[in-house]
Each structure stands twice: as C-alpha cells, then as structure tokens.
Fold this protein.
Amino acid sequence: MSRTALRICPLCEATCGLTLTIEGTSVTGARGDRDDVFSKGFICPKGASFGAVDGDPDRLRTPLVRKDGELREATWEEAFDAVAAGIRPVVERYGPNSVGVVLGNPNVHTMAGALYPPVLLAGLGTRSIFTASTIDQMPKHVSSGLLFGDAGAIPVPDLDHTDHLLLIGANPLESNGSLCTAPDFPGKLKALRARGGTLTVIDPRRTRTAKLADRHLAIRPGTDALLLAAMAYTLFEEDLVDTGELAPHLLGIDELREELGDFTPEAVAGACDIDAGTIRTLARELAAAPTAAVYARIGSCTVPHGTLASWLVDVLNILTGNLDRPGGALFPQAATDRTPRPAGPSHGFALGRWHSRVSRYPEAKGELPISALAEEIDTATPEGEPIRALVAVATNPVLSVPDGDRLDKALDGLDFMVSVDPYLNETSRHADVVLPPPPPSQSPHHDFAFNTLAVRNQVRYNRPAVPLEPGRMAETEILARLILAATGMHGADPSAVDDLVIGQTLGKAVKETWSPVFGRDPKELSGLLTGVSGPERRLDMMLRLGPYGDGFGVRPDGLTLERLLAHPHGIDLGPLASRLPQPLKTRSGKVELLAQPIVDDLPRLRQALAERPDGLVLVGRRHLRSNNSWMHNVPALTGGTNRCTLHIHPEDAERLGVADGTAVRVKGAGGEVTAPAEVTDGVRPGVVSLPHGWGHDRPGTRLSHAAVDPGVNVNQLLDGSLLDPLSGNAVLNGVPVLLFPVKPATVSAL
Ligand SMILES: Nc1nc2c(c(=O)[nH]1)N[C@H]1C(S)=C(S)[C@@H](COP(=O)(O)OP(=O)(O)OC[C@H]3O[C@@H](n4cnc5c(=O)[nH]c(N)nc54)[C@H](O)[C@@H]3O)O[C@H]1N2
Ligand SMILES: Nc1nc2c(c(=O)[nH]1)N[C@H]1C(S)=C(S)[C@@H](COP(=O)(O)OP(=O)(O)OC[C@H]3O[C@@H](n4cnc5c(=O)[nH]c(N)nc54)[C@H](O)[C@@H]3O)O[C@H]1N2
Ligand code: SF4
Ligand SMILES: [Mo]
C-alpha cells in the first residue's frame, strides 16, 4: 500500500513543494505539488530523484566513533561521550578559539541548521568560525551591510513583474537560482520575455540561461565590477539618474558620482572585452525600462572585486529608482523575520572587528575566510593557539575549498574532529566521531533562510514524511546534544537548548516597545506555545512574534504554527512590496551609498583598468543534476553531460594542440589536475571551465557510486591565497591556469 506526503525539496534554493509517494518507509516517487502556493507543481530532475537521494544505501545509519585508528559503528551515547571527551579538554586547556566550527551549505536547507548553529557558536564563544559563505555570497552580505546596515538585507529581483532583467554571473537554468528563491526560475525568465520584457545575460560562457536572453555578453572573467562601474558612470554622465521615491532615503550620491569619475566606458572596455558603445546601451536600457532589476551571483561574487561588484549591482538598482519598487529589486518579508522595529538610525555594520591569526584576514559578519581554515589549523603563531578541535556540520571543505590537499593533512593533525554528516566522505573520513542525520524524508522542513530571499512572500512547513527509523536521531536533537556536549553540559536534556532560546527570545521581546508582546510575562507566553517538539515550539514562537504573526493573541487572525499546519500546501503572503526605510539599520538610518570601506577599495579597482592578463583563465560551472560535492553518489543523477570535463574553446584547443576527449593537464597556483577536454564554443576564447565538487578518489570514504567516476578536484588548482579583501571570499573564478595536452600513451597509463 502506498501513500503520499508533502515535502518541500531541500536540494536547491528554489524550495519546490513535492508530493512524495511512500511505500512502507521508502520514498518511491516524487512529483511537483500542484497545490503548493509557491511552486505550483514545478519540479526538476533532482527533485524527481528525491527518493534516490533519500534512500542512498551509502547513507550512514549509525554514528561512527574512531577506536584504535578506525571508524567503527557506535551507539549515540558512545558518540556524544566521545564528543564531550574530545572537545572539553581542548577548550579548557587552550581556550575557546582553539575549537573551530565549519558550517556548510546544507545548513541553509535544514531546520536543524537554522536553529542550532547560532546557539553552538554562542555557547562555545569561539572566533574560529568558517562557513560556505566565504566561498560563495559573503561579498553580497558585506555590500548589504555597508549599504543598508544589515548583512542579511538582500534585495531580490521581482522576477514576476520586472520589465528588464540584467543577469550577471548566474546560470539559473542549471542552478535554479541563488539569493533569489524562485521555483521555476526558467519559466519566469520565459514569462518575462513573453510579456515583452528583455533579458540580458553577462557570462563568459554561453550558458543555457544565456541562450534564452535577448543579449548575451561574454565578459572577460573577473571584470564585472568595472563594467557595472562604467554603467553607473554613464547614468551620471548622461543625466539618466532618477532615484524617484528613494531620494529621501539616500546618502552620498554626489560623492558617489565623484568616486566613479575614472570608470568611463572607454576606460573599462579593454579590460572587460565589451565595447564602450555596448556599455552605454546597457546603461540607457536600464534607465529607460519602466521597471528593471540587476541581479548577480556566483560569477560576480567569487572574484577579486566581489564586494565592489555586489555593491554596484545595488547602486545601479538605486540610481535607476528600481530598488524597493515592484518590478525592481525588493526586500522580501519572511514570516519568521524578527518583529519589524520602527525605522530610524541603528547600530550599523562593522567589518574587521578582529582578524585571523595567521594571515591577519579581517572578520566579516563574525566569520573568518574559509580559505584560511587549513592555515589556522596547521600553523602556530605567537598570537594564539591553532585550532586543535573541529566541529564540522554539513560541509565537505576538502573538496569545496581551495587547496584540499593541505586541508586534508591539516585535518589529520587535529586533536579531535566531529562531523555531522550523512556520508563518510572526503572530509568526514577525518573525523573521530561522525554523527549522521536522518534522510530528508524523516526530517521536518521549514525554509528559514530562503523565505527571506523569495520572490514572493509565503510560508510553508512540513512535518517528517516518514517516521524516524529505529536507531535514528533527528538532526535537531543531534545538534542540541552536540551543543550540550561541547559546552560542558553533556548529558542534559536536549530540550534545555530550546527552552534556553525560547526564554531568551521572549525575555527580549517583552522589553521591546514595538513588540506585540511588550510588557507581557515571558513564562505566560512560553506556556502558550504549541508544537510536538522543541524545534516546532521555536517555529511557533518565531511565527507568532513575526510580521504576520498573531502576536500571542494580539492579532487573532495572525499566523501561528497551528494555522500553518492547517494549510499543508502553504500560505501565500502576497507579492513583494516596498519596505523602505524600515529594513535600514545604518547609523544614519539612510541607504549609505558610499561607505568608507568601499572608498578604500576603489583604488584597487582603478588599478584593474590596466590589467589584461594574456593567458588562460579558469571559471566554474554547475550542472542541473548535481549539487556541489555531495550528489555524485546517486546513479540517477550522474552520467550523460554531467561530467567533470574541461570546457575549452576551439581556437584555444587548436593553438594548444588539444583534441576533444583527450586528457589535459591543468596547472594552477595550488597544484594540478588532469581532466578530459571537451572542445566547445560554449566558453569564450581565453577561458576554460571545470565544475567543482568532484575528486572522489580519496581512500577511506563510503561513496561507492561516486568513486566509480570520481572526476578531479578543481579547487586543487587554487592555493587559497586569492581573496576579495573586503569579504574574505575566495576567488574561484577568473583564475590563471596553464594547460598541457597529455600524450595518448600517457593517458592509458593514468
Ligand atoms: N571551485 C568552486 N568551488 C566552489 C564553488 C564554485 O562555484 N566553484 N561553489 C561554492 C559554493 S557556492 C558552496 S555553497 C560550497 C559548498 O561547499 P560545502 O558547504 O562544503 O557543501 P557541499 O560540498 O555541498 O557539502 C555538503 C556536505 O553536507 C552533507 N549533507 C548533505 N545533506 C545534509 C544534511 O541534511 N545534514 C547534514 N548535517 N549534512 C548534510 C553532505 O554529505 C556533504 O558532506 O562550495 C563552494 N565551492
Ligand atoms: N544544479 C545545481 N544547482 C545548484 C548548485 C549546484 O551545485 N548544482 N549549487 C547551489 C549553490 S550552493 C549556489 S551558491 C547556486 C549558485 O547559482 P549560480 O550563481 O546560478 O551558479 P552557476 O551555475 O555556477 O553560475 C555562475 C555563472 O557565472 C559565470 N562566471 C564565471 N566567472 C564569471 C565572471 O567573472 N563574470 C561573470 N559575469 N560570470 C562569470 C559562469 O560561467 C557560470 O555560468 O547554485 C545552487 N544550485
Ligand atoms: S528546482 Fe531545486 S527545489 Fe525544485 S525540485 Fe529541483 S532541486 Fe528541488
Ligand atoms: Mo553556494
């Protein structure tokens, strides 16, 4: 007998609602949920393979604990005993910074990852914090912090209503979108064109997204900030600046004009490889469109001027009056956002409040660059202790971060490491304890992070589709117990963690004059919370305190967990709407167009005007049926075009004597790899492309299918020293490489 259950897909940022078919305790099918208020039935091949991802036989079923050098199956009790025994002595002897925490991408796709890591970090009091943000979107956080005073205030393009989209360094036809949560992003781009709107794509590769566009410009990698600066220059020069209703909220527009004076289209054209006339046209079109949005992602963030590029994206949205207006780029309002406080001056955003120990990198958003993780472990300095114990949650930095070989060795030298991970993979194989979360079908789901980035306000929640298998522990409980074990409260009831957070949050809320619960008794409020578990009670609390909440009875029609549970396909909360000035948290209470750190970084961009490296540069790419480093173990999602090949333009291939399908040695600052060439004019001349997340040939893993076609680790070409200085984000695109064709005789010996 089969049954169905609803489950939001956790496999990318699009958050599609799925209808799962379940036989016994196995997911045997998945289709798009047509009644989902947000995704309306959309599904992609990854979502359709939910059952295979969920039921992968290589997923760990029990904790592993290292005994006599070997990872062996253990009980949960033994595992948490080992965590407490591994971490506490390190903290007590060497201090909190000697415990590092690494948080990876899937944390934004799980309830556990949203609710518990902040408590862990606060409890440990460590500054050795590293996340996937610094190999991804940290430049956007920093730019939002500087412009709006809030690193989390990221405007998203109003895809459903815009007349003109300038899409930079993103390939949503493969990625399904990022920092812009939109189920059926491809359909939304087609709809934009169908209603007479225009789409321009800036990408050194002619991607599937570029093929949909009215205009595709194959920019030279790493130069988007120059292009955008010249567009802003043109708006000023041609008197096209029209900030509309934004004007009273803006600070520094004259100074901005002054600072951009050197970035004429003629000055940047050579570096970007886009002619000046085209740049002027791009600026004029942006200004002329009734509504328009500039949107940029990975290709513009993971480059040397990532923060400036991210900043200029919003500068252009502001100068054309498109920020915070329908059809432009707006700030979503999620149901679990904090109670909106009245607009006005706030605490602002600070950078570099402390520095990493070895290379003195400034912190951003409380984090150190993940590129510095290896050196913070393997290098002693007079300033303080290296990291001796590591907590890794949902992360595979040996493959995702520059120079995995060095990190591999560094992890081996740790006194203790714990991984919360469903797989024994390139990173978790170094752990002394592996704590495996249950598969997604056995976990509850709510998108705390992605609802703050969604192109439509909505709220959805799923309870587990399948009950926890015997011997399994919910990831929320795993993380709660990990917090207790790491902070000296080993063995306490894990609900203590939730009670602590609830007590603190309500205690604060009742003191906030703008809160609907101002002046009430926190104990009375916590007694009103519903939910069958600590995490559900926390969700209920956040919903009720949030912008649409019932305010614990103050607004009887408002949101509660009970109301949400009564709407299994979700509740629509309407299109994105103007919100300024409320989201601003700058000290001035205004949008600060030209913060000092930006001014200080602009000379570096001026220098780039003259740069024209003549060699080959490397960029990445994503495939629709893959996801970073952890989905190559699912047979249904591998093979075909989803391969780790080196894309190279025919002209470059001919010049270097590289034939299609033959092996090429690629050499970068951090090392070299050998991959088969795929000759294609899908990349521009001078640029080669390798996907990331491959290189599954290290011993000691349990990834039986991925190991069959392991691919190579592109991040081994990087040595980790190239960073965007303001954000600490790794430079992963536009990296110089050398190519050497491998003689056929050598290939067979490989
Ligand atoms: N060269 C290059 N490198 C890149 C990129 C690039 O474009 N080019 N992209 C970067 C980007 S954008 C990102 S976000 C990073 C990602 O890098 P990471 O944050 O390291 O993420 P993944 O590689 O996806 O590894 C995720 C880990 O989480 C585990 N996992 C899966 N599901 C769960 C779960 O439900 N719970 C837990 N606890 N664990 C789970 C997986 O087994 C895997 O070990 O990679 C980056 N690296
Ligand atoms: N199928 C699939 N979906 C995913 C993921 C995945 O691994 N696979 N990962 C998820 C994650 S963690 C993230 S962060 C998102 C990322 O989502 P996207 O940002 O859409 O990621 P990509 O598909 O890598 O697109 C980046 C594009 O930038 C281009 N590019 C490289 N360098 C430059 C440059 O200097 N300038 C410009 N203008 N373009 C450049 C590349 O050619 C590439 O086409 O995708 C998410 N969704
Ligand atoms: S687009 Fe993303 S969220 Fe939607 S089904 Fe595919 S992987 Fe899942
Ligand atoms: Mo990412």
